[in-house]
Write a structure and sequence with these properties.
Radius of gyration: 27 Å
Distance between the termini: 34 Å
Structural class: alpha/beta
Strand content: 5-15%
Bound molecules: phosphoenolpyruvate, magnesium ion
Number of helices: 23
Number of strands: 16
């Protein structure tokens, strides 16, 4: 009988293979008393285990394939650093001696104390850092309990090529080794989409499902499994019809991906020879690699606020300058659009204690920056100075009126004079553009276009504010509709205002990377899209099959009609499902 279990799909793809169950997480840690005369021996047993853990992790680091994303090496380095940290080295020794307890129990006690601190944190990302402590502590515990020098990593389990691994949880080190072992996919009982393991699975392109509680109770070793990483579905022991269906999907997926790869160096030009710009969105410098890899024309949105989050201090002008310069160098001459801070709403600083009843409508993004110039000025200076190194545009988020635009432009002028006076290299002609994320800005787009060098439509917020739906509230997610006539009319208005003023208009919200809307947006006149790297080639393949002369009248009609039957017909012509 086949069985279907649902978890959280964190890494896309279909995998079919035999199950391999890893039970190593289920070991009991005993507590026992250590006699005074053998305490030194127990401490040295603990130190020895730490040393073996270090050797093992260094070995894992050496096996990371070249060309792997830098953050994977960082995860392993972070675990190695933890093995040098006194909270995991000195503190357990004190516990062994002061309480006369065994090394296993001491490290477990210390782990519990540390995890308690992490669990009390509000930030979901930081809460997942407790996983790192567990990964390191479990490694030490396994060494202590097996008392062996041999590797405690998944390699102990023989040839796993093509297998689907089921574990309680996996460490980043395990995930790296899995790629070496040719593991087809993995499932863990714990973890979420923000866990390091999930992040690594995505960048190694291993299909993965997490949070599938107790899955190992229902699955036997060597049972045939299907993993659908898109939907987070596991099918055990499938019948031939299901198997054939997934084999066909897997084949089609492989063919589709291989075909997309051939588009990397091809221009994104429509059938009627209209050139389209395709850029990428980045949050961290390490994201640049993926953008270059898919042959993007540049970066249309660099969300700099991520540099300010998950830390207790504000990055200085020099630190920012260094970071932006690194990105510019990685871009190797391709244009980079740096967005100034968009903090507030769902993205907050660690020390932000300001209560706010309606954060999405509050002091966020440029409002916060203009309110606190000690935050804004160093960033403007850093961006303008970095721009001396390559083609950079500066983009301001959440502008809503003329006053804000003039204030920003004034500040830019002031900083220009300041930098001249200080004799520092900078780009005096850096283009300053604005994001159109507020309906008022879209309606007043011609005024925006008059003052700014370019516009970029942020549909994530524009849709949120136009339809009055909180973008992070699941309960109203059903109302989120990028194809709502009101939204489309606003988008169209912005594109037209840009065209009339002869300035570029791009779109960098999620809608730009959603293949369902590529035809519609082309029909509305959009010629510049910025999105996450993973969507770029797929969007390009659609563009190459479009004729804008055919799409324009359909899109314009669709933007004005509320008639459900007519909408259905037009949606079909535009390739929008639903
Ligand atoms: C947007 O609002 O569409 C956008 C790109 O900005 P963010 O998602 O960072 O708010
Ligand atoms: Mg936004």
């Amino acid at each position: 009988m086949s069985l279907q279990i649902i978890g959280i799909g964190v890494s896309r793809g279909i995998a079919i293979g035999k199950a391999h169950i890893l039970m190593r997480g289920d070991f009991e840690v005993a507590e026992y008393h250590i006699e005074e005369e053998t305490l030194a021996e127990e401490v040295s047993r603990f130190r020895n285990a730490l040393e073996i853990a270090r050797i093992q992790l260094r070995e894992v680091r050496n096996r990371i394939p070249s060309g792997t994303k830098a953050d994977i090496v960082e995860f392993i380095n972070a675990h190695l650093l933890m093995l040098e940290d006194s909270t995991l080295t000195v503190a357990p020794e004190h516990l062994i001696i002061s309480k006369q307890i065994n090394a296993e129990w001491a490290i477990k006690q210390q782990r519990n104390a540390l995890v308690e601190v992490f669990e009390a944190m509000d930030d979901a990302y930081l809460r997942t850092r407790k996983d790192d402590i567990d990964h390191v502590v479990n490694r030490i515990l396994r060494i202590l309990t097996t008392e062996t020098q041999s590797s405690v990593d998944i390699e102990d389990h023989g040839n796993l090529n093509g297998h689907i691994l089921l574990a309680d949880e996996l460490s980043p080190a395990d995930t790296v080794l899995m790629q070496h072992q040719g593991i087809a996919a993995f499932i863990t009982e714990y973890g979420g989409p923000l866990s390091h393991t999930a992040i690594i699975a995505r960048s190694l392109r291993i299909p993965a499902i997490v949070g599938m509680h107790n899955v190992r109770r229902y699955i036997r070793d060597d049972e045939t499994l299907i993993i659908d990483g898109y939907r987070g579905v596991l099918i055990a022991n499938p019948d031939q019809t299901i198997l054939d269906y997934y084999l066909a999907r897997q084949q089609a997926e492989l063919q589709r991906l291989a075909k997309l790869q051939t588009l990397k160096r091809e221009p994104a030009t429509t059938r009627d020879n209209v050139p389209v710009h395709l850029s990428g969105n980045i949050e961290l410098p390490s994201d640049v690699e993926a953008i270059i890899e898919v042959g993007a024309d540049g970066v249309g949105l660099y969300r700099t606020e991520f540099m300010f989050m998950n830390r207790s201090d504000i990055p200085s002008e020099e630190e920012q300058l260094e970071r932006y310069t690194d990105v510019i160098r990685m871009m190797n001459g391709l244009p980079l659009t740096i967005r100034t801070l968009d903090l507030g709403a769902d993205k907050t600083l660690d020390n932000n204690e300001r209560p706010c009843t309606n954060p999405a409508l509050g002091l966020r993004a440029v409002r916060l920056c203009l309110h606190d110039l000690s935050l804004f000025r160093p960033q403007l200076r850093a961006i303008m100075r970095a721009a001396a190194e390559g083609p950079v545009r500066m983009m301001i988020p959440m502008l809503s009126n003329q006053q804000e635009i003039l204030q920003v432009l004034n500040l830019v002028r002031e900083i220009r004079n300041e930098l001249v006076a200080r004799g520092l290299p900078f780009d005096p002609t850096i283009p300053v553009g604005g994001m159109i994320e507020v309906p008022a800005a879209a309606l007043a787009a011609d005024m925006f276009a008059k003052h700014l060098s370019f516009l970029s439509i942020g549909t994530n917020d524009l849709i949120q504010y136009t339809l009055a739906i909180d973008r992070v509230d699941d309960e109203v997610n059903y109302l989120y509709d990028p194809s709502h006539p009101a939204v489309l009319q606003l988008i169209h208005r912005v594109i037209q205002a840009g065209n009339q003023a002869n300035i570029p208009v791009s779109m960098c919200g999620e809608m730009a990377g959603d293949t369902a809307y590529t035809r519609l947006l082309l029909g509305l006149g959009l010629r510049d899209f910025s999105m996450q790297a993973a969507s770029l080639l797929e969007v390009k393949s659609i563009i190459k099959n479009c004729d804008t002369r055919e799409l324009q009248p359909i899109a314009e009609k669709f933007m004005h009609t509320h008639d459900l039957i007519e909408r259905k017909v037009l949606m079909k012509q535009l390739g929008i499902k639903g």
